[in-house]
Amino acid sequence: MLEARNLRKTFGDMTAVDNISFKIEKGEIMGLIGQNGAGKTTTFRMILDLLTPDKGEVLWKGEAFTNRLFNQVGYLPEERGLYPKVSIEDQILYFAQLRGKSKKEIKPLIDNWLEKFDVKGKKGDKVKTLSKGNQQKVQLITTLIHQPELIILDEPFSGLDPVNADLLEEGIKEAQRNGASIIFSSHNMNNVEELCDSLIMLRNGQQILEGSIKEIREQFGRTKLFLESPLSTEALLQFPGVQQARVNKDGVTEVTLSQTEDGKAIFEAATKDGYIPTFSQQPPTLEEIFKRMAGEKHE
Amino acid sequence: MNKFWVITKEVYKKNVKSIGFLIMVLSPLVVAGIAIAIGYFTSQDAENAEAPTLAIISENPAVQEMLSQEGSPFDIQEDITTQAAAEEALLDESLDGYLTIEESAGSIQAEVTHNDSLSDYIPVLNEQLATYQTMVRANELQLTQEQVLSLSEPVTVQESIVNIKDGELVTEENNDTFVQEFGAYFVCIGIFIFIMTYASIIAEEVANEKGTRIMEVILSSATAGNHFFGKLAGVILVILTQLAFYVVVGVIGYFFAKDLSFIQTFLNEVDIWSIVQQLLGYTIIFFVTGVLMYVILAAFFGSLASKMEDVNKSVTPIVMIALAGFYVGLYAFVSPENILAVVFSYIPLFTPFVMPFRIASETVGTLGVWISIVGTVLFTILLTAVSLAFYRANVLIYSDSGIIGTMKRSWSVMQSNRKAKKAKKANG
Questions:
Q1: Residue spans of alpha helices (H) in B95-121
Q2: What pLDDT, in 10s, does the model give residues B115-125?
Q3: What is each CA distance from A132 to A110, A153, B64, in whole angstroms?
Q4: Which DSSP symbol is given to A87?
Q5: Does B218 sit within 8 Å of A98, measured CB to CB?
Q6: How many CB atoms neighbour CB A240 within 10 A?
Q7: What ipTM does the predicted assembly reach?
């Protein structure tokens, strides 16, 4: 279990991260979202003890994170890189050895992992002969093959096509089933919604959102209403609290409300004559929340 | 396996297997091979060259006998005995020249007529004829063999070179200085070549890992110290491999080549064994500390580069320092007592280039040598400590602001980490 308590890091006058706290249980996946420069990488580096926090601490299974725990970590940095002139197999073996595994332990696993991630190329091939996507998958294998208990993935999905993104998702879920605590950052909110048990959002080094995805979305109220009913958009705009109403391409009317309660009056009016096919009042999507929160001016 | 060794092994394997290494190791051998081949063929040529043909026109066959003896540089044409026959032979190019000898009252008058191919042989001819004349005179004077020998006994001249040391004249052995200076020269060039090669190798290693962000993965797997020293050890092993290869090739080559005549001439002039002894002395200390200092410095500067392409820019300061050392070294070769050479010989980064020349010219005492050795060793330790401290912070900084900008930011990261660690310790 990973716990971060009140992390703070400054470089000179610049505060990179301020007062960040979170907890990731065994077998749990946490998403870390935020715009570029929000402090995600600094947070990862503090977890990995590459940077020492000015304030606060990182605990792994209740103790301070130090060199001794290196072998339990799998880390994929944001910008990808491997040794171009080294073969896939040697590369995987080298990183696994750096994580305290022996060649003997890892060698028999390589074929299986290459197959699992559908890497095009033989294990004797030099990395530079692979396509970018395949290189990225090889790097993912080096991050996961030693079965780390703490997995940190900085933008693991960037640059992957949907098929490969699914393979990666499957890989992350498998690690989760094996009991790993996983933290990853992403700009793609679909991946985050799909995978994460919990989430924190950073803005300018501040933690502005936290909790499970459901909790966070509910925080914003069920202000999205999808409706298929006899009510016209003109009629809908007359209701109190309706900010916007428009008919989407699929014929469903999308209404933006000021607060959750505003939906009740519309429901009653829409179902006055009985059955309607759609009345779905939802909180904003993660993507909408992200855009809204990122866009708000920092006080 | 210990992570230090995992890194060392990786660096070693990757570099030794590379084509660049092969070229680097073999190219001096190729150059040496070409030099030896040229030497060999030239000496072969000289051995196989045909002796010039010479006819002797004389009433006394003794001269002809003497010049026909084994070891004579001339091919004597015994069947040509008259000037007319000789001129005819000269005309159809079957003869290079003829020697006309007239004796009157024990005095020899000789005249050589030739087609300009005998010019180099005139001194030999002169010497032989002089010997002949001595014999003729000795005969006339009825001297015994011993008396002749005692007349022609050469004078022996003994040479002693002295130096003024502590107000006294000290004799030095001529050969020794030559060998020492040769050794110093060798070290100066050797250190420079090794520094240039291996500084760029290690800087590339580090910058490459930093540029590809492999560094972050490694530093979350192993400590910065493990990585830094692992890299260093790997590169040092590569250097040792190269040196060992040369030693093996040198020994094998020595046994193969020592019978070749032109190599023997060389061996007679230079005492290989005393060069080896010279190399095993102070020289090796300067070689080791010199290469070590610069390689550490290169790892440090390599960690300042943000991407692979910046490596050359970031190792430029090292190249400059090494180049300055190299030139001061060459200057010290010519005037070892110059104040510049003396001062530079005590500055750690220049010591390996300059001090060997001062030792060779015996312008520095044992105390001075040891002061400079202790100085370089302490400096190497200090350099390692500083480089390592910066290294941890350097590798996390990607900046477009050049070396100075990166160092500034690295310094602030270092300070920030240090302060944070101190605060943590104070809190418990």
A1: none
A2: 877 787 888 88
A3: 19, 18, 89
A4: B
A5: yes
A6: 10
A7: 0.81
pTM value?
Answer: 0.75
Contact residues of A toward B, CB < 8 A: 9-12, 45, 48-55, 57, 67, 70-71, 73, 75-83, 85-86, 94-95, 97-100, 102, 142-143
Q: What does the DSSP 8-state code read for residue A285?
A: P
Q: Which CATH architecture has domain A2-217?
A: 3-Layer(aba) Sandwich (3.40)
Q: Where are the domains of chain A?
A: 2-217, 221-282
Give the mutation candidate from A86, A94, A141 for the B interface (greatest B CB count, under 10 A).
A94
Is CATH 3.30.70.980 the right assignment for the domain spanning A221-282? Answer: yes
d(CA A269, CA A290): 32
Distances (CA, A) of A58 to A12, A64, A130, B311: 22, 6, 37, 35
How many angstroms separate the CA of residue A91 from the nearest CA in chain B?
A: 10
Looking at chain A, which residue has its C-alpha nearest residue B19?
A: A85
Reading chain A (299 residues) residue by residue, the pLDDT tens digits are 899 999 998 877 788 899 899 999 999 999 999 888 888 988 998 898 888 888 888 999 888 877 778 889 999 988 878 888 889 999 999 999 999 999 999 999 999 999 999 998 888 999 889 888 888 899 999 999 999 999 999 989 888 888 988 999 999 999 999 999 999 998 888 888 888 999 999 988 888 888 888 888 888 889 889 999 888 888 888 888 899 899 988 889 999 998 888 899 999 998 988 899 999 999 988 888 888 887 775 44
Chain B residues touching residue A82 (CB < 8 angstroms) = 212, 214
* Chain B residues in contact with A53 (beta carbon < 8 A): 420
Residues of chain B whose C-beta is under 8 A from some C-beta in A?
A: 1, 3, 6-7, 10, 14, 18, 208-209, 211-214, 216-223, 396, 409, 412-413, 416-417, 419-421, 423-424
CB under 8 A, 24+ apart: contacts of B308-312 = B308/B204, B308/B207, B308/B208, B308/B211, B308/B212, B310/B207, B311/B200, B311/B203, B311/B204, B311/B207
Residue A82 CB: number of other CB atoms within 10 A? 24
Domain boundaries, chain B: 54-151, 176-427
